[in-house]
DNA sequence: CTTGACCTTGACGCTGCGTCAGGGTCGTAG
DNA sequence: CTACGACCCTGACGCAGCGTCAAGGTCAAG
């Protein structure tokens, strides 16, 4: 007759695990000897090895109990289901791997590759780091809500970076955002240039964006981010409104 | 300013998760409004999305905290380590899949395929089911301790099944095990036949088994299984001893 | 004023055991 | 005979990462 320690070592599990299986009703409690020790026969080793085999195959213990008692058909069906679960877990891990592979660089935390490329292009063009950071944070918010639209947005933004007029405008907006006060006298002129560029592209862009529209909440969040980020925000929105454009993130003709 | 519910929905997590991240120090507790509600700015959304991105990539929360604060080099090293872990988990699931694939048939619970094949061959040859079951349980014990030796054991056993003399002996032992009493008068004659077959193969088999020897404990366990299983066991061991062979599972010249 | 949707803290539940704590028991060695 | 180390016993807490009540307070709309 075996003690619990011997049983456990034959089956390759810990003593604690054996007691746990007793508690869960997976393995029947054996007779006790006169000092209260559990005493097992060799059949218990076989049972325990069966339990361990299923458990090691990733079967939850609650199902192990069913499986040990199941007829061959039910057993086969259960095995099939468990295999499905394992496959799903493998797919999940694979997705995680590709995801963390993208995390190698700092920006890509929570951003798709095309957004990382866009931010890198901004850096190449000499935009200041804090402007890139602000853009990054805004795009993280968009990517979380509208991941499918990110390629479209990024293609559009990258195109704008290659237009010298727009590029100059962006640079100046960057300077204004980080260095000007809300009452800076240069703001109206900047608003004029911005309105001109909006009017040049608005009609085609609005169609592209309409396919997968931002929720009102996301628009409000991005507007709030802008207002939090710079003292010129409120004034700039006012100036745009005076010029016939309402909003910021999602501009509309007033 | 956002409530906890809005924050959570922007980041795609549950309210409970946000509070949990606060509790774990992953996300700083924000200001409260006059009624005690937490109020968040949009930067909190970005932080929360970062946390969620790492957590979804399978990073344990304790490491998420480090990672959010880590410099790029440490971050890259940590990412590498996490990737290793994911790969290991994938390999583990793959092993589990192959393992449960073997479980499709009942015997293969805890047995390698060659053992299943051996048991199937026994069935083909008309051995009674309970004898096959007894063999199966014994081999489960061996496979748990000496998995690498199973091909060798099974090759040996399968060879023996194809020898007509040994086959007849095995059938008769099976009958004796399940149907005779310990004092059956036919036992001495059966012991004579068994000894003859042992002596025919012992010297070569003993070398094969010596490469990866059974522990004394395993031998004792298998002997105990035999003694538990049939009333003829004790007498048979006696008769073998009279004929110069000690033991059962592991026979030695006395 | 009521309703229903939110917010608050606190506590327990889940898996599969690991790890004390605070005992008793066994076998062997001195 | 006693001491020692290696076992055994039960009971309880701990772990991750939240989900899910419980028992309230708050807010916006009708």
Features:
12 helices, homodimer, 254 residues, mainly alpha
Verbal overview:
The structure is a homodimer of 254-residue chains. Chain A is mainly α and 254 residues long. Chain A contains 12 helices and 2 strands. Chain A has a two-stranded antiparallel ribbon. In chain A, helix 1 packs across helix 3, helix 6 packs antiparallel against helix 7 and helix 7 runs antiparallel to helix 11 (216-229). The radius of gyration of chain A is 32 Å and the shape is rod-shaped. Chain A binds a DNA duplex (30 and 30 nucleotides) through helix 2.
SSE order and pairing:
2 copies of one chain form a homodimer.
Chain A: H1 4-11, H2 15-23, H3 42-56, H4 61-69, H5 72-101, H6 113-124, H7 129-145, H8 150-161, H9 164-179, H10 187-210, H11 216-229, H12 233-242, E1 245-246, E2 252-253
Antiparallel strand pairs in A: 1-2
Helix pairs in contact in A: 1-3, 3-4, 6-7, 6-8, 7-11, 9-10, 10-12
Chain A binds a DNA duplex (30 and 30 nucleotides) through residues 3-5, 14-17, 19-20, 24, 35-38, 55, 60-62.
């Amino acid at each position: 007759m075996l003690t619990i320690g011997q049983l456990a070592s034959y089956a390759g599990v810990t003593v604690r695990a054996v007691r746990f299986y007793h508690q869960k009703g997976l393995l029947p409690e054996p007779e006790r000897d006169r000092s209260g020790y559990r005493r097992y026969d060799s059949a218990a080793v076989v049972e325990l090895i069966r339990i361990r085999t299923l458990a090691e195959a990733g079967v939850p213990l609650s199902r192990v109990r069913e499986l040990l008692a199941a007829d061959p058909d039910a057993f086969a069906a259960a095995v099939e289901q468990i295999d499905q679960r394992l496959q799903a877990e493998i797919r999940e891990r694979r997705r995680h791997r590709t995801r963390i592979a993208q995390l190698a660089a700092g920006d890509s935390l929570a951003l798709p590759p095309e957004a990382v490329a866009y931010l890198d292009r901004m850096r190449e063009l000499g935009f200041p780091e804090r402007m890139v950071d602000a853009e990054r944070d805004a795009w993280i918010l968009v990517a979380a809500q509208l991941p499918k639209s990110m390629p479209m947005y990024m293609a559009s933004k990258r195109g704008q970076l290659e237009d010298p007029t727009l590029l100059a405008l962006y640079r100046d907006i960057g300077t204004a955002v980080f260095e000007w006060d809300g009452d800076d006298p240069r703001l109206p002129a900047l608003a004029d240039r911005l309105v001109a560029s909006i009017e040049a592209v608005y009609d085609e862009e609005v169609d592209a964006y309409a396919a997968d529209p931002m929720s009102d909440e996301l628009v409000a969040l991005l507007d709030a981010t802008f207002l939090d980020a710079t003292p010129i925000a409120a004034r700039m929105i006012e100036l745009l409104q005076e010029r016939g454009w309402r909003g910021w993130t999602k501009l509309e003709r007033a």
